[in-house]
Design brief:
Elements: E1 3-14, H1 53-65, E2 69-70, E3 77-80, E4 90-93, E5 100-101, E6 104-109, E7 112-125, E8 129-132, E9 137-140, E10 147-153, H2 160-176, E11 189-199, E12 209-214, H3 217-236, E13 244-249, E14 254-260, E15 270-271, H4 282-289, H5 296-306, H6 311-319, H7 321-331, H8 337-355, H9 366-377, H10 383-396, H11 400-407, H12 415-428, H13 430-437, H14 443-454, H15 461-471
Helix pairs in contact: 2-3, 5-6, 6-7, 7-8, 7-9, 9-10, 12-14, 12-15, 13-14, 14-15
The structure holds zinc ion.
The site of zinc ion (ZN) has 8 residues, from loops.
């Protein structure tokens, strides 16, 4: 019997705000424990939460970026449970009226574009962090109350690899949209995985197994690579799966049971009495809408379409957003944007890497790159000279056209001048010239090299080839030209 896998993901993302969700404490990773705390985020009795407006904006912006519908009235609820990292014994979240409903993420997968639908995105608060030492445990509340967005997908994912690519695409969108830095090392993105298997063709979903608290995308992939065959194996052997929550043990590379359905929490959700429902005004939403940016995948496709770039170049400009902007500033006026892309990716990017220079530190502007490309394309300078010009322009910032004029680097396309160099090269190397006449094709390259040397690299190489061939009788009718 064949099985198919059904996966849904709940992704938690810390929002990029200066302060926490309900108080003015800094939303900052890495400070000494319990230094960014106050009565509100410590959950002391009698305090009142005040919603962080930027977090509300970022939540709405995420909804727009992910093609969702912004709720006309979003409500906050209390999710009740006891845990040491949550001293007020409830978490403020959104239960039945989340900030954004629906939407989808499109991403590249298996050579095509795959769409995963979203159920909802809702705003909640992060909790503190437990630390376990040899003889005691501690809690750091710096993270408590950090705005956390939960993005819930529909069960549209079908494999470990697809889940992995979806997460990466989602992360790209969130970083690009300025929603979150998504720094995995700092725990800014975590996810819960819901996975079940069912015999192919069966409509009903299998028992839902949840793997909690994954903090890396590769971990999610590995957990699924373990969990999916495990479930199939149970069913193949005639066993039965029941709804449960499991934990991924990264070191042992296995999932293990944490609790079954009978032990599931009842969170006793109820409306948060200290917060009004949030009703975004038209103007407020319009302001948020102005922050919508082009999505990374759309950008890649546009670069391929508008500038005729190969997928690999467009991918580079998708991943390196500022370099892509730099390319675009140049390419808009270019006759051959691909040539500009080559210079930016192969030369500029490489040189910036070598010299640890950022785009902001460049001494020239994008117009200089365009000027250089045009100098090569018009035949005014050779590619070889262009490399030297680029190196010097990178160091000094001088405009390439001005440099070529000042240093007399223009390629010599004047036939009489090149003829003179060719005569000189042939006269100086009679043996090589004879070899060529006798049929040794490679001899011509040597002579070409001599002419380039005599012209200090400035002779137009294709003209040099033509003239040498003519002078050596390659194209004459006396039969001396033997290579056919
Ligand atoms: Zn606080």
């Amino acid at each position: 019997m064949d099985f198919e896998t059904v996966i849904g993901l709940e992704t938690h993302v810390q929002l990029k705000t200066k302060s926490k969700m309900w108080c003015g404490c800094a939303n900052e990773f890495g400070a000494p424990p319990n230094t960014h705390v106050c009565p509100v985020c410590l959950g002391l009795p009698g305090v009142l939460p005040v919603a962080n407006e930027e977090a509300l904006r970022l939540t709405a912006l995420t909804g727009l970026l992910l093609n969702g519908t912004i709720s006309p009235q979003a409500k906050f609820d209390r999710k009740n449970y006891f845990y040491p990292d949550m001293p007020k014994n409830y978490q403020i979240t959104q239960y039945d009226r989340p900030s954004s409903v629906g939407g989808y993420v499109d991403f590249e997968f298996a050579g095509g574009i795959t769409r995963v639908r979203l159920t909802r995105s809702h705003l909640e608060e992060d909790v503190g962090k437990n630390f376990h030492f040899e003889r005691h445990s501690g809690v750091d509340f710096n993270r408590a109350g950090v705005p956390l967005l939960e993005i819930v997908s529909e069960p549209d994912l079908k494999s470990a690899d697809m889940a992995y690519e979806y997460l990466n695409a989602l992360k790209e969108i969130l970083i690009h949209g300025g929603i979150s830095d998504c720094d995995m090392e700092k725990g800014m993105v975590r996810c819960d995985v819901n996975v079940s298997v069912r015999p192919k063709g069966v409509q009903e979903l299998g028992a839902k197994i949840e793997i909690k608290n994954m903090n890396s995308f590769s971990g999610v992939r590995r957990a699924l690579e373990y969990e999916i065959p495990r479930q199939i194996e149970v069913l193949r052997n005639g066993g039965k799966l029941t709804q449960e929550t499991r934990r991924w043990d990264d070191a042992a590379s296995v999932t293990e049971s944490m609790r079954t359905k009978e032990m599931a929490h009842d969170y006793r959700y109820f409306p948060e009495p200290d917060l009004m429902p949030f009703v975004p005004s038209k103007d407020w939403l319009e302001e948020v809408r102005r922050r919508v940016v082009e999505l990374p995948l759309a950008r890649k496709q546009r670069f391929m379409h508008d500038y005729q770039l190969p997928a690999s170049d467009a991918e580079t400009f998708k991943n390196e957003i500022r370099l892509g902007d730099y390319f675009e500033a140049t390419a808009k006026q270019a006759k051959h944007p691909k040539a500009v892309a080559n210079w930016i990716i192969n030369n500029l990017r490489a040189k910036m890497g070598e010299t640890l220079t950022s785009l902001d530190e460049l001494k020239f502007n994008p117009a200089s790159i365009l000027e250089l490309v045009e100098l090569v394309e018009s035949g005014k300078i050779s590619t070889k000279i262009a490399q030297d010009v680029f190196g010097e322009m990178f160091a000094s910032g001088e405009r390439p056209g001005a440099m070529v004029d000042r240093k007399g680097l223009a390629q010599v396309s004047d036939t009489s001048a090149i003829e003179k160099f060719c005569d000189e090269a042939i006269a100086g190397n009679p043996k090589v010239a004879d070899d060529y006449r006798a049929g040794k094709a490679a001899a011509l390259n040597f002579l070409k090299g001599q002419v380039m040397k005599l012209s200090k690299g400035k002779a137009n190489p294709s003209l040099v080839g033509e003239i040498l061939e003519r002078k050596l009788g390659r194209n004459s009718s006396n039969g001396k030209s033997v290579h056919r």
